[in-house]
Design goal:
Radius of gyration of chain A: 15 Å
Helix content of chain B: 55-70%
Shape of chain A: globular
CATH architecture of the domain at 40-307 in chain B: Alpha-Beta Complex
Largest sheet of chain B: 10 strands, mixed
Largest sheet of chain A: 5 strands, parallel
Helix content of chain A: 40-55%
Number of strands of chain A: 5
Order of helices and strands of chain A: HHEHEHEHEHEH
Structural class of chain A: alpha/beta
Number of strands of chain B: 12
CATH class of the domain at 40-307 in chain B: Alpha Beta
Structural class of chain B: alpha/beta
CATH topology of chain A: Rossmann fold
CATH superfamily of chain A: Response regulator
Mean pLDDT of chain B: 85
Chains: A alpha/beta, B alpha/beta, C mainly alpha
Strand content of chain A: 15-25%
Number of helices of chain B: 15
Strand order of the largest sheet of chain A: 2-1-3-4-5
CATH superfamily of the domain at 40-307 in chain B: Spore Coat Polysaccharide Biosynthesis Protein SpsA, Chain A
Oligomer: heterotrimer
Number of helices of chain A: 7
Mean pLDDT of chain A: 77
Largest interface: B-C, 51 and 58 residues
Radius of gyration of chain B: 23 Å
Low-confidence stretches of chain A: 1-22
Distance between the termini of chain A: 32 Å
Shape of chain B: globular
């Protein structure tokens, strides 16, 4: 891959790679828009994290059962299960694991309020800036 | 006599040809429009109205939790889910209480429509289930349960569904479209397309893989639903003459439903009856209005695949139709009700309600001719083949429409199976359906002394009272 | 379809005509002769006997006299003329022949055939009713009764035509059915192929897009050439319209979900690849769906220079083109002037409001946006939308204006103003709200009492109590009690006791139920 070379040679983050690798974390991303999923994956991989992807609620719950992620990024509206359910499930299973909600819903919406009630750590509204998301992830993990 | 049947036959052919044409135009337009809508915008818009989903349940204990969960995960920001336990004899209520951590509340509401006694209104102690309301009431039938839900609902629109239906995640936003788009008329109700979920793969309350049912009866219903939703209702909605919104999935303007007195619990065809009554009300008030139809199959339902259950269903549908047409017979050919009175209503009486009767008469007439020896085999045969091919053609059109638009059945043999069903249907299924419908007629005639009179009195008073109130 | 049927009908008619013509032309010499044989008299027609010119007349005088008498005689009955001629032949007279006269003119046999055809059609003849051979058996006599061939033919054709039409319709149905089947199969395979292609293209787009926007800086992308960029996606793909379409959709989708400099990068990719030209081309299309697609793409990608071309479509007949064009112009134009919206004649649907709001929401706070122009609009739906915008965009500075216009707006506008006051907690408008509460309109009072829960003071409590005493409406009572409860719990208890009604107690329980408090 051309881009792998680029990462190693040209990337402004190159010098960080070793540091970050030591702090590699498992991040679960639940999002039904494949393209966004891909964007988030791309960005977080660059930070050196291991990214687990789930396209819908069921996959999300399954992934939660199989892995113990260090951080969860989830949409609120995904097929099969409401994001709220997923958050509840995650909270019950990994009370310490921080959750970031990534959603097109506004912060003032009822559902987002509910999510905050359940103790999510952060909320990133769509449209979002992947760099900003990466910073938020970094802050929560450290 | 012979001429009558000939004319009837040709009228059927011509009318259905017009319907096919109109629905073709409408479908094309709807599909094109859908391309320019990001329904995600609708999910969060503050302009959108609130929706109360009303799901009456009777002895659904086995599936109710799953279904309720799927209803709670629909994509829209302003909606509530009201599940009405209509005096189930199984443990539905206990299951709901346990699974959703419900508690009986002191919900105070106004009994705007008379219903059977409400035992309690429940809400979840879990704040993340704030959207859910469960109503426990004594048994009163589906219409009564829906009325109880209407009394409790707190949103502008009500969405009446069958609890065992599977809704697509974006079903609410798609159904809202006509409400949001119309400016000159008041949209009083919107119907949605219904698909058949038999033999499909369903995962956690969502259809993931569409497949044609295995039994002939099931496949026949697939075709029948195509015909009914892609040909019939689309055309009628374009001409603003739609009389029926399926009870399995319909959105209504709550204010208006309350004005006309809610569902009418004494008929078996409460879904059609409500639409006709709302239309009648609007026509009488002379308010410009519209009943729209969204063709996307957003609601998937299991249909009966045994003759026994299907026969009961058809019998009930037929009785519902007759009862509705009977109740509102003043609209029949009444120019005061414009298109509804002059076209929709006569069409329903002639081709939906009386079709089985006329077909039966046709058979009797043919038999009589044979006995009298005045029977031309050639003539009869050619006419028979004519009608046969027409029915086949109509069904094929509906398959074509579905193929060109939603294209849900993508497995290899599916198309072949459907075509064979179309070819077989007139011989093996149609006669059965007609017998069941005739049974419905018979039961209606037998039962007319019972509720017939009583209903008419109580019911018309309600309409009167309402229009008077409105006058003030 | 209809056309097909019409053409079929026409063909059927044509066929009928041809059959008729054939029926009359079939009067050949033979049938004419047999017709004449069976006829006693034909209108305006008679026969004479004639001899060949080189005739030997040197027989006996008496013979000659008899002959000339015979030759002068006029026959009306063809059969008799024939038998006379035959007897002349027997008598040794050479070449006697029958001369036909029609309207006293001598005619050839060919002309006779034509004439007879007309006669037959108009029935201007007297058929033989009694044959000379009466002594023959009845059945033979019956056989000799001249039937009318015309009638028989017509009957036969008529019968046939009915049958042919039936067969024709059947055939037509069959053909239509087969054609349908054909279409079905074609449409199916075409759809499947297209879907597969789109899926493929999507995969081909996704990786390059993400790597481009994450690996390169905006300047780097901007300096790339078409060749460099298109190489990432596969150069040959850019000849396919479907690929370009899919790529645009993907870019638009990412663009919609991302923020910051990613938007600029995507825009650079979009323009360098020349996709903006592709979208612009769609605007010129005659199909409204193409037009809308073009507008949406240019709008989402923020292509400012397209605004002039899109502006032409603002008054399009098509609702969707119009909606999208208005939104795009608003978004792309620099001055964000809402004047054209305020002057709009047709009512503004909620759908349009939704799309316009989405644009206005994303305008940075620093930019000047004058909503008050909408509040002054003549068009009620635009005015109402203006009131809503005050609420959605949190324009606190316009509260006063709303208050002053309250009496002049539509009913819906009044409701929207009250909702806006609530959303913006308009403490300053307490006086107006009190007045509205005490007026008779139930819906407005309801909204007012709801609003007082947020902005009410001690004075409000008195107004609410007074209103509660005079009110019988369940919903209003519930709302007032809820507000009272939030403002002054003690007063609430007192009022409930004062009313001392069963349903008021139910409402009290409802209000105090912790689970229902945030419904």
């Amino acid at each position: 891959m051309v881009f792998v070379d680029r990462i190693i040679n040209k990337s402004p983050y190159f010098y960080l790679l070793n540091d970050v690798k030591s702090a590699m974390k498992d991040i679960l991303v639940i999002e039904d828009d494949l393209l966004i999923l891909k964007m988030v994956e791309f960005r977080l991989k660059k930070e050196g994290h291991k990214v687990i992807l789930a396209e819908d609620g069921n996959e999300g719950v399954k992934a939660l059962e199989e892995n113990a992620p260090d951080l969860i990024i989830t949409d609120i509206m995904v097929p099969f299960k409401s994001g709220i359910e997923i958050i509840e499930f995650a909270r019950a299973k990994y009370p310490e694991c921080p959750i970031i909600v990534l959603s097109a819903l506004g912060e003032e919406e009822g559902t987002v309020m509910e999510a905050f009630n359940l103790g999510v750590a952060d909320f990133v509204p769509k449209p979002f800036n992947p760099n900003e998301l990466a910073i938020r992830v970094k802050r929560l993990i450290n | 006599m012979g001429i009558f049947f000939l004319c009837y036959g040709f009228a059927v052919i011509i009318i259905y040809m017009i319907i096919t044409l109109v629905s073709g135009i409408e479908l094309r337009e709807q599909i094109k429009r859908n391309k320019f809508v990001d329904y995600k915008d609708v999910i969060t818009t503050p302009v959108g109205p609130g929706v109360s989903i009303l799901a009456p349940a009777y002895n659904e204990g086995k599936t109710i939790v799953q279904n309720a969960r799927s209803l709670l995960s629909l994509h829209y920001s302003k909606y509530e889910v009201i599940i009405i336990n209509d005096g189930s004899k199984d443990d539905s209520m206990d299951i709901l209480i346990k699974n959703f951590d419900l508690r009986k509340t002191d919900y105070a509401f106004e009994q705007e429509i008379e219903t059977a006694k409400i035992r309690g209104v429940y809400k979840s102690k879990n704040p993340s289930l704030g959207k859910l309301i469960v109503v426990d009431k004594e048994n009163g039938g589906k219409a009564d349960a829906l009325n109880a839900g209407i009394n409790i609902s707190g949103q502008e629109l009500i969405a009446c569904i069958d609890v065992d239906c599977i809704l697509a995640p974006d079903s609410i936003v798609r159904m809202l479209r006509p409400f949001l788009e119309e400016t000159n008329k008041r949209v009083i109700a919107v119907g949605g397309g219904i698909g058949i979920a038999n033999n499909c793969d369903i995962k956690d309350g969502t259809v993931v893989k569409y497949r044609v049912p295995d039994s002939l009866l099931g496949r026949f219903q697939v075709i029948e639903y195509f015909r009914s939703f892609l040909l019939g209702r689309l055309a009628w909605s374009r001409m603003n003459g739609l009389l029926l919104i399926s009870g399995a999935f319909g959105f209504f303007d709550k204010e208006l439903v309350l004005k006309v007195g809610g569902y009418f619990p004494k008929t078996v065809g409460e879904d059609m009856e409500l639409v006709v009554r709302m239309r009648r009300y609007m026509e009488e008030q002379k308010i410009p209005y519209k009943v729209a139809f969204v063709s996307d199959p957003l609601c998937w339902t299991e249909v009966p695949e045994t003759e026994e259950v299907l026969s009961k269903q058809r019998n009930r549908w037929m009785r519902g139709t007759i009862e509705t047409l009977q109740l509102h017979r003043t609209m029949q050919l009444n120019p005061k009700y414009r298109f509804i009175g002059m076209v929709s209503f006569p069409f329903w009486s002639l081709f939906e309600k009386n079709a089985p009767i006329i077909e039966l008469l046709g058979v009797i007439y043919t038999l009589a001719l044979i006995i009298m020896g005045d029977f031309s085999a050639l003539y009869f045969l050619s006419l028979f083949v004519l009608i046969y091919f027409f029915s086949v053609m109509l069904s094929s059109f509906s398959i074509l429409f579905q193929e060109l638009t939603f294209d849900n059945y993508q497995e290899k043999g599916d198309l072949r199976k459907l075509i064979f069903t179309v070819l077989k249907e007139p011989f093996f299924i149609h006669p059965k359906i007609m017998t069941w419908c005739i049974k419905g007629h018979w039961q209606f005639i037998k039962g007319i002394g019972g509720w017939g009179e009583m209903v008419r009195v109580g019911f018309n008073n309600k309409i009167k009272a309402n229009s008077e109130n409105n006058g003030k | 379809m209809i056309k097909l049927y019409l053409s079929f009908l026409l063909t059927a008619l044509l066929f009928l005509k041809v059959c008729e013509v054939a029926a009359f032309q079939s009067s050949d010499s033979l049938t004419t002769i047999s017709f004449l044989n069976g006829t006693e008299k034909v209108e305006s027609m008679f026969y004479k006997l004639k001899l060949k010119e080189a005739q030997d007349t040197s027989t006996t005088n008496s013979d000659a006299a008899h002959l000339s008498q015979l030759l002068n005689r006029v026959y009306y009955d063809f059969e008799r003329a024939v038998s006379t001629r035959d007897s002349l032949i027997h008598a040794g007279i050479e070449n006697p022949r029958i001369q036909y006269y029609i309207f006293d003119d001598a005619k050839d046999f060919d002309e006779v055939i034509d004439y007879i055809a007309i006669i037959k059609k108009n029935e201007l003849y007297i058929p033989k009713t009694e044959k000379p051979q009466t002594n023959e058996e009845l059945i033979i006599a019956a056989n000799r009764i001249p039937f009318k061939p015309f009638y028989q033919l017509r009957y036969k054709i008529f019968n046939d035509i009915k049958f042919i039409i039936l067969l024709g319709i059947l055939g037509l149905f069959l053909i239509t059915f087969l054609a349908l089947l054909f279409f079905l199969v074609i449409a199916r395979s075409k759809n499947a192929k297209r879907k597969k292609l789109i899926k493929e293209y999507k995969l081909q787009c996704q990786t390059p897009i993400s790597s481009l926007i994450f690996e390169y800086t905006f300047q780097e992308i901007e300096s790339m050439s078409f060749e460099q960029l298109s190489a990432e996606f596969g150069k040959s793909n850019f000849e396919k319209a479907l690929f370009k379409d899919t790529l645009i959709k993907e870019i638009v989708n990412v663009n919609k979900n991302l923020k910051g400099d990613f938007k600029d990068k995507l825009r650079a990719i979009y323009t360098i690849l020349g996709l903006d030209k592709f979208s612009l081309l769609k605007l010129k299309s005659k199909k409204w769906d193409e037009q809308s697609a073009g507008i949406v793409e240019l709008f989402e990608m923020n292509i400012g220079y397209a605004v002039d071309q899109i502006e032409k479509l603002v008054s399009s007949k098509n609702f969707i083109v119009r909606t999208n064009a208005v939104r795009a112009v608003l978004h792309l134009s620099i001055d964000k002037d809402l004047k054209f919206l305020a002057q709009q004649q047709y009512p503004l649907s909620k759908w349009q409001q939704m799309s316009i709001y989405r644009v206005l929401k994303n305008i940075p706070k620093s930019e000047k946006l004058d909503i008050s122009i909408l509040l002054d609009a003549e068009n009620h739906s635009v005015q109402t939308f203006g009131i809503r915008l005050v609420r959605y965009l949190g324009k606190i500075e316009l509260i006063e204006k709303l208050s002053s216009m309250y009496n002049h707006v539509s009913y819906l506008g009044k409701q929207e103003i009250l909702k806006t006051f609530k959303a913006l907690t308009a403490f300053s408008e307490l006086e107006l709200v009190h007045r509205i509460l005490m007026e008779t309109d139930r819906n407005l009072s309801l909204l007012a009492s709801n609003l007082l829960a947020d902005i009410g003071n001690d004075e409000s409590i008195e107004f609410l109590s007074t209103k509660l005493e005079g009110s019988k409406d369940f919903k209003l009572q519930k709302s007032i009690l809820t507000t009272l409860y939030t403002l002054d719990e003690q007063r609430f208890e007192i009022e409930v006791q004062k009313l001392n009604q069963e349903h008021i107690d139910l409402i009290k329980n409802h209000i105090k139920d912790s689970l229902l408090s945030y419904v």
